[in-house]
Amino acid sequence: SQTPAWTTLINQGSGIWQAVATTDEIPLGGVKRFVTDAVVGFVRHTSEGYLALSGACTHMGCLLNWNVGARTYDCPCHGGRFTENGMSAPSSAVEYNPLPSIQTKVEDGKVWVYVVSAPPSDTLPTPDSTGGYPTR
Fold first, then answer.
1. I want to staple 53 with a disulfide (CB 3.0 to 4.6 A). Which of 14, 68, 86, 117 is the partner?
2. Which residues fall within 8 angstroms of residue 26, CB to CB, at 6 or more apart?
């Protein structure tokens, strides 16, 4: 069970570290879904440590569900399925690109993930009375 090396979700220097679980919450072999302001993902406790993957399907971005029995990440939209390592599963309806990995670290009994920092909601454009967005 190797760490996927193909794509890292956030490039070094462009994100922030965010705690998403305590080490006690995820026993060896366990998987926990996490949500930050900008990213949904899964942290998995393996014999190599804690590994994290994006929780969005690489097909059209639908949010994946952890299937405990099959140990796969399943997409509710088009039948996509990924192995616990993030590769397209043999039982997937279609072979999709692997899930991007997310850097992790353990500090102070917590599992941290390296994710993008979402802008404060007050800086996002607000639709006008017609439902459109003002041009600057």
1. 86
2. 32, 43, 44, 45, 50, 111
